């Protein structure tokens, strides 16, 4: 019922909040007041240490929340949000009526406003701006833009994009980012209004100044929700709109666009010079290509320089030029080789694409880490053309370099398909045995050999190898897989692990200890020695009885 009406349930609230906040929120159910349900949101007030405003947003992907308490302003689903969410669920039967009432109120307000005379509307607006300073400033800006008072407009836009009032500790923290974003969005609206009122040339200059300020400030803003970025994008759109109306000098515009893209200011606005192609015309685009070429010559490995040149080349459709650009700075993991291969394949040049991918494998062959996508690309192309032996050879070579469980699995998959896994497995295990003799421990803690044997289900061999080399994770996995067939040996493992797990504290450690005890109990049952387990558990509870949280967790697990 609740899922159909509001789009979320109690489990969703618990998952978003976490156990601690959820349980604390239960104590605030009676503190919720002023609940208002709209089409896509719910607002309410929660009385706690202070009076906090909460808004739940209901969407296709579930529920999100905002609260103005300190914990909520950090982006957390706090106890106040829990209280409001649960209150909504407990009143779910009345939600359709509340939504209908909200629509009726909105309709009534619209009808009332429409019936007011001009003087009555003016009186109402004056009353509101006397009480709401932010509303007054927004309307003052619109009024200045309407009467072309450019000095006032400029001062207000500069003030709106100035980050300093929000940077209380030298930066704009998460809690203040939304307030700053609202001001930036207001500046974008003012810029659009200027353009609409025939002052597009002035709007261009003011927008460029705003973009510069935003670019300089963005590195010191916690924009986790992206609200400042969205507002800055609106400023960039206002700039593009103004340029379309004012038609500034193409060369000057080209210089500004390239400078903005290359100097770091573009991080917040994500300007794309090609969006301005119509304004720039052939001469402006030629100037951008010239500037991009010169910039890349000065910094061949510069990310912004390469990105700009890549965009220009792609727009021109010159695949060979794009390949040449990427080939100037081939990465050490094969990722760039793969990028070139994909571009060539998209152009219908599959043979050249595979050649570049194979080159990447050769040039990165000795590296432990190589981009997995490159290996997958080559093996997939080999499989498509019936070159299964070549695909096995690629996976074999990578396994010999990496000696990881992932590489072992990939070799097994391709060798299985080629019907040669038995021989490949023997050679792969020999490689891992050699590594296990040389050093104790591998990339996963214990030797990868044991992981491979466990992954193959070869438990007899895994027991033999584990005796000298396995770590606790591998011992636990081996015992879990052998509990039914080797209960006595598995029990010995669990008892050792239980002894080592007595010392750590905390919910996670206690839950792990409870799982080990349950596994040990299963082994005792299989061996017919349940009385021994009962005595063991009694002694353990007596030894650790002061840990009340552990006792509660053991009780929940039937221990």
Describe the structure.
The protein has helices spanning 2-6, 10-25, 70-73, 79-90, 95-115, 118-131, 133-146, 150-161, 174-196, 200-217, 227-246, 250-262, 266-269, 277-298, 303-316, 319-327, 335-346, 350-363, 372-384, 388-402, 405-417, 421-438, 448-456, 459-469, 472-482, 487-500, 507-527, 530-543, 548-556, and strands at 32-37, 41-47, 51-59, 62-67. With 559 residues, the protein is mostly helical. The chain has a four-stranded antiparallel β-sheet. A hairpin with a 2-residue loop joins β3 (51-59) and β4 (62-67). α7 packs parallel to α9 and α8 (150-161) runs antiparallel to α9 (174-196).
Describe, in short, the structure shown.
By secondary structure, this protein is mostly helical. Helix content is 71%, strand content 5%.
Task: List its traits.
single chain; mainly alpha; 71% helix; 5% strand
Which helices and strands, and how do they pair?
Elements: H1 2-6, H2 10-25, E1 32-37, E2 41-47, E3 51-59, E4 62-67, H3 70-73, H4 79-90, H5 95-115, H6 118-131, H7 133-146, H8 150-161, H9 174-196, H10 200-217, H11 227-246, H12 250-262, H13 266-269, H14 277-298, H15 303-316, H16 319-327, H17 335-346, H18 350-363, H19 372-384, H20 388-402, H21 405-417, H22 421-438, H23 448-456, H24 459-469, H25 472-482, H26 487-500, H27 507-527, H28 530-543, H29 548-556
Antiparallel strand pairs: 1-2, 2-3, 3-4
Helix pairs in contact: 2-4, 6-7, 7-8, 7-9, 8-9, 8-10, 9-10, 9-11, 10-11, 12-14, 14-15, 15-16, 16-17, 17-18, 18-19, 19-20, 20-21, 21-22, 22-23, 23-24, 24-25, 25-26, 26-27, 27-28, 27-29
């Amino acid at each position: 019922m609740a899922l159909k009406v509001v789009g979320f349930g109690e489990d969703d609230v618990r998952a978003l909040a976490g156990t601690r906040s959820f349980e604390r929120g239960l104590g605030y159910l009676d503190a919720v007041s002023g609940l208002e349900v709209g089409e896509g949101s719910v607002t309410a007030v929660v009385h706690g240490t202070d009076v906090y405003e909460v808004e739940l947003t209901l969407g296709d992907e579930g529920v999100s929340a905002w609260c103005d308490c300190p914990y909520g302003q950090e982006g957390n689903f706090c106890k106040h949000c829990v209280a409001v969410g649960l209150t909504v669920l407990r009143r779910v039967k009345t939600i359709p009526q509340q939504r209908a009432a909200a629509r009726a109120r909105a309709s009534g307000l619209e009808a009332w406003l429409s019936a007011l005379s001009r003087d009555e509307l003016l009186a109402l607006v004056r009353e509101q701006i006397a009480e709401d300073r932010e509303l007054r400033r927004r309307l003052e800006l619109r009024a200045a833009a309407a009467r072309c008072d450019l000095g006032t407009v400029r001062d207000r836009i500069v003030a709106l994009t100035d980050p300093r009032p929000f940077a209380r500790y030298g930066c704009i923290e998460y809690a203040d980012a939304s307030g700053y974003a609202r001001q930036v969005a207001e500046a974008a609206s003012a810029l659009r209004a200027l353009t609409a009122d025939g002052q597009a040339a002035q709007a261009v200059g003011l927008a460029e100044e705003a973009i510069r300020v935003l670019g300089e400030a963005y590195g010191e803003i916690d924009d986790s929700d992206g609200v400042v970025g969205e507002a800055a994008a609106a400023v960039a759109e206002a700039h593009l709109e103004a340029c379309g109306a004012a038609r500034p000098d193409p060369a000057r515009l080209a210089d500004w666009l390239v400078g903005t893209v290359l100097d770091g200011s573009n991080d917040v606005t994500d300007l794309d010079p090609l969006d301005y192609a119509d304004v720039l015309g052939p001469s402006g685009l030629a100037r951008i290509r010239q500037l991009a070429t010169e910039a890349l010559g000065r910094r061949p490995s510069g990310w912004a320089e390469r990105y700009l040149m890549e965009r220009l080349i792609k727009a021109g459709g010159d695949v060979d030029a794009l390949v040449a650009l990427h080939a100037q700075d081939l990465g050490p993991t094969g990722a760039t080789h793969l990028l070139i291969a994909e571009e060539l394949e998209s152009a219908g040049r599959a043979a050249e694409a595979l050649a570049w991918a194979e080159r990447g494998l050769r040039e990165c062959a000795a590296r432990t880490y190589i981009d997995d996508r490159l290996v997958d690309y080559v093996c997939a192309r080999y499989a498509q053309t019936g070159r299964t032996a070549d695909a096995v050879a690629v996976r074999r070579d990578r396994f010999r370099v990496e000696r990881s469980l992932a590489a072992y699995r990939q070799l097994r998959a391709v060798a299985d398909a080629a019907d040669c896994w038995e021989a490949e497995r023997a050679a792969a295990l020999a490689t891992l045995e050699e590594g296990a003799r040389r050093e104790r421990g591998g990339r996963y803690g214990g030797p990868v050999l044991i992981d491979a044997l466990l992954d193959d289900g070869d438990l007899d061999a895994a027991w033999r190898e584990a005796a000298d080399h396995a770590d606790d994770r591998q011992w636990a996995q081996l015992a879990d897989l052998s509990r039914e067939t080797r209960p006595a040996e598995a029990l010995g493992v669990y008892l050792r692990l239980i002894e080592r797990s007595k010392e750590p504290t905390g919910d996670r450690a206690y839950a792990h200890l409870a799982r080990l005890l349950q596994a040990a109990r299963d082994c005792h049952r299989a061996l017919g020695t349940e009385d021994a387990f009962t005595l063991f558990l009694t002694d353990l509870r007596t030894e650790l009885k002061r840990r009340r949280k552990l006792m509660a967790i053991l009780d929940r697990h039937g221990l």
